[in-house]
């Protein structure tokens, strides 16, 4: 038999039919929905007089548009409240499981899916959200879709998709102390650029990837979309099984043993062919920071913003426009630049390990008075665990406060907006113009680098504070 | 939603020679609170088009009466970022039927096609000529012929690629859901396996 990639194995097992010269009809095992990209899909379904085809395969949680304070009160913003009520009504009407606001399992859709065991190796998963790639960390084929496609999945549990090309990114070696999964992914994106993986599904491999925890793997797969990839995935192994085992929706007993036996087959065969391959050394990676308005504009924290000579001439006008927005100059050094806000949260870095990292660095120190810090757990369960582990206490002693879970300042749909012109060191995934609020200036970083900025008030190498 | 049929379009065009135009620029998140598909055109390129006080930014191309048309021409990597279909709705609602660029982000391209907006990928050289031509003469037109899969500027023609299935959908105004609904039996069979 011809050797197959991990991606091929999962994809091919879900093809209902391939249209000649066209896309495939791909069966979807798990569909996640939230309040922002689903209402028009339900409305479309209704207009066609259709019911949800397989409601038990869809799970819903509001996250993008919810407040992160006083969640028990009525949502003040009429439009936001309407979106959340619409989701609730749609789920009720169609028998879809909903982890609504104030539900003990509510949270960001890409945090909730894995922590409840909805996410499992070998699945196909979609969500009307580009960071659905997160779930690829388990060896699932998971990708973001538009609302018309959400409607397709609700109506038929299938989607029409052309098969993407395959890329493998291998990172061998050992990450240095203070260098995290987030730095690894920002490094790769800086190498490939924001469109570098467009049209591809990426498999991450190599010892540095293998040695990551599940949460670290999720951070890496989450960011795949930021280099244009359709999705990212990592072959499941003992780390994966260990994480999934015992979770609410994970298979139990005999089913578990059967499932694991199947999951063990999910890896790229020796000799499987990728359309593109890249290899990097973990030792080359230092804590990373972005300085521009797309996630590919990043550098090691001790580095400089490129000079005019270092940027391709054709790209210089866009590059300069971006720096102008950021208030930075060509060739500037990043260390020591002033920081106004720090945001730790999002589906990229809003999990328990991220809060542990933050706490480990700020423990016994104090937040700089000049910095406003928003610490937003990715879910209710993360919040609870942070309390139980005493992290909340450590953070409070250092002058930090936890907000309630949600997407928050990652996309600033609610009131959590960074004011115009202010600098935010953020553990989220996008630094686009205005992403964190109109005029906001975002520097993407790991929780450790964010923590270091929070305690010093300036861009600081976290390794200096250990 | 049934989509508009697309065959041939001859139109003046609006140049946006910026690279990596992401979905947060096309439609910022704070305008995603609606529960219907209509009206997003008003906020297309919101933060470039309007000043923080709500007045029109005269420097932005959509506010420049010199340029108009049903074709938007943008720098490479148009539509990167989020999966929000609102971006495609905004482009469509504003009145664009075609977006031309040398490179599109995947999800945006899919979303555009699902809404009857045709993404046309041209070579970087052709793109430069298109930008230069409209600078010289803002009455300049482009002709996009879907059947022929060609785009022409002053008689200079370039072919573009499109998946034959999607081409057929656009030519006839079919959408994917209709197709899938017709496959229900096969889908149920697949579930049994
Ligand atoms: S945290 Fe940010 S990136 Fe993740 S789902 Fe929410 S808005 Fe999207």
From TrEMBL, chain A:
GO terms for molecular function: 3-isopropylmalate dehydratase activity; 4 iron, 4 sulfur cluster binding; metal ion binding. Keywords: 4Fe-4S, Amino-acid biosynthesis, Branched-chain amino acid biosynthesis, Iron, Iron-sulfur, Leucine biosynthesis, Lyase, Metal-binding. It holds the Pfam family Aconitase. Its EC number is 4.2.1.33. It catalyses: (2R,3S)-3-isopropylmalate = (2S)-2-isopropylmalate. Its cofactor is [4Fe-4S] cluster. Catalyzes the isomerization between 2-isopropylmalate and 3-isopropylmalate, via the formation of 2-isopropylmaleate. Heterodimer of LeuC and LeuD. This is 3-isopropylmalate dehydratase large subunit. It comes from Marinifilum breve. The gene is leuC.
